[in-house]
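Contributing new records

If you add data, match the layout below exactly. Sequence lines come first and carry their own label; structure lines follow with theirs. Keep one chain per record. Anything else will be rejected by the validation script.
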Amino acid sequence: MVGAGAAPGRLATRLGAERERIAGERVALVLDLGAARCFDADGRALRSAAGEPGSKGVAGPSREDYSRTMYRRILVPVDFTPKNARAIDAARELAELSGGEVTLVHVVETLGEDSDPELEGFYRRLETQAEEKIAELLATLGDTHFDKRSVVLLGHRVRTLLGFAEEDGSDVVVLSSHRVDPDHPTADWMTISYRLSILAQCPVLLVK
């Protein structure tokens, strides 16, 4: 009788231990899922499973960790209107976090695909004026710890911007846009900013 009574007791002990083990695994799984919120380029989690950045005894991801996951090649199309300032400010904030590069680009719209000798001089004057204006915009970024440059291109605006973004390996396009009128939501969907946001092969940030 003693042996028979002892068996259920040992079984209860083993079941209790098993429940604790399973509960422990669940806690570990929850902690691990809570940790996997930020990954580097190789898919490694940047947060510790022990808690959030800044938690007691836990070192959060460094600036270098974040920079590997941020947009580093930032393209900003400009048309020399006042609203460009908002897009440039947004690009500056992204570049300060990632330590990447900001490229301002302006496209001088041409009238056709084929070159016209009679218009080449006209385009060159527009290109020279654009280079002076874009240099002034680039200077508004001030002294930075990230790289910056400006580019002036000739061609169809949307196609040229899309092609340049792909060839240059842009991680994100940042451009100023307008606010959509809720009463007429489709009125301005054919603007350059919205066409780029749909057709670009990389993320696009519209600054309104």
